[in-house]
Amino acid sequence: MVRSLILLGLVGFAAQLVDGSLGMAYGVTSTTLLLAIGTNPAAASATVHLAEIGTTLASGISHWRFDNVDWKVIAKIGIPGALGAFAGATFLSSLSTEVAAPIMSIILLALGVYILVRFTAFGLSRDNLGKPLRKRFLAPLGLFAGFIDATGGGGWGPVGTPALLASGRIPPRKVIGSIDTSEFLIAIAASIGFFVGLGSENIDFAWVAVLLAGGVIAAPIAAWLVRHIPPRILGSAVGGLIILTNTRTLLRSDWVDAPGNVQTIAYVAIAVIWAAAVAYSVREYRRHKEQESVEAIEAELRRREAEEPTPA
């Protein structure tokens, strides 16, 4: 029991490091790690969402105080998202472990691929802006993202954030603040759905408390990491971990039941791609830093030339 609680504390710690550094993937990371230590899929998602009630509340208050929240967006995306999360939680609760584990792993695997590709290829680019933001777009987006978040144990940020960034109508800081704040509604709705589907006797509240405690401890460290570890590199590393872990779950499931040699080949291939992605992210990060340094020097030289007095 003590060993399990220590593992859970480390899971919460690691997940918050990721989320605090990237602005997403707390649910994806923590659910992936909970599945890896043998937790029931529905119980894993329920545990994560209960812990997220505390973490998202704290995050929402912080964003509100820094004026990073668009309350109209929260109402339009958060309420449908809560409905989707409730539906996803009750759906997942109704599935057997043998069926639920592969379904959750497929969703997490897709999100892991998205995180790996997004941060490796594009980093934190804000260039994909300009699409019109329509009211009829936000409700379906929230419904879909909420459903994926509950059934996959995470996904509100990875689905919602890039979609709103692409709208071009909301400043990036308010996109992140609004998504983080509205996730409080998603966590509550999903938790209620799991209570309805699982019952409170199937949820270990000690696990929830330890997971939450690990996240609280990691929060200030994550803030430090944001300043010292490039999100592009961290995103590539985390995406690869999620892909590797959920591929392992799928290959060992009753759906696939792959032979040992096939599993080994798959793990080696993923590891090679993962290492290449991290190396590429490191190279691109250094290249951009060098380019920024050159541009800064050129700008300073132009400034000095402009300030030099003109000969009489």
TrEMBL record:
<dbReference type="Pfam" id="PF01925">
    <property type="entry name" value="TauE"/>
</dbReference>
<keyword id="KW-1003">Cell membrane</keyword>
<feature type="transmembrane region" description="Helical">
    <location>
        <begin position="205"/>
        <end position="226"/>
    </location>
</feature>
<feature type="transmembrane region" description="Helical">
    <location>
        <begin position="99"/>
        <end position="117"/>
    </location>
</feature>
<keyword id="KW-1133">Transmembrane helix</keyword>
<keyword id="KW-0472">Membrane</keyword>
<feature type="transmembrane region" description="Helical">
    <location>
        <begin position="181"/>
        <end position="199"/>
    </location>
</feature>
<comment type="similarity">
    <text>Belongs to the 4-toluene sulfonate uptake permease (TSUP) (TC 2.A.102) family.</text>
</comment>
<dbReference type="InterPro" id="IPR051598">
    <property type="entry name" value="TSUP/Inactive_protease-like"/>
</dbReference>
<feature type="transmembrane region" description="Helical">
    <location>
        <begin position="263"/>
        <end position="282"/>
    </location>
</feature>
<feature type="transmembrane region" description="Helical">
    <location>
        <begin position="137"/>
        <end position="160"/>
    </location>
</feature>
<protein>
    <recommendedName>
        <fullName>Probable membrane transporter protein</fullName>
    </recommendedName>
</protein>
<dbReference type="GO" id="GO:0005886">
    <property type="term" value="C:plasma membrane"/>
</dbReference>
<keyword id="KW-0812">Transmembrane</keyword>
<dbReference type="InterPro" id="IPR002781">
    <property type="entry name" value="TM_pro_TauE-like"/>
</dbReference>
<feature type="transmembrane region" description="Helical">
    <location>
        <begin position="73"/>
        <end position="92"/>
    </location>
</feature>
